[in-house]
Predict the structure.
Amino acid sequence: QVQLVESGGGLVQPGGSLRLSCAASGTTPNLYTMGWFRQAPGKQRELVAASTSSGSTGYAESVKGRFTISRDNAKNTVFLQMNSLKPEDTAVYYCYADSPIRRWGQGTQVTVSS
């Protein structure tokens, strides 16, 4: 089973940037779709970005043009580069891997505030 460990969350001002990392181990996560969900208080968990094993990527409309998902296959790590952050981006961000049963990272808090 794949294990996912997240890092990179924190507090950032509006307009700032943050880079989340999700390191995978156990199985071969590069063969599966990996991505990021987020969940804010009082809201349902929503898909933010995903990357397939073939290299296709997809983004939520709310983050298009601001967030970029990428992978480092050698390190079995998926990243989420978040630019032009807004207060509404505040949430706990969860990495996932469909391996093929979905596995989750522990979550990392992202807070965008002045």
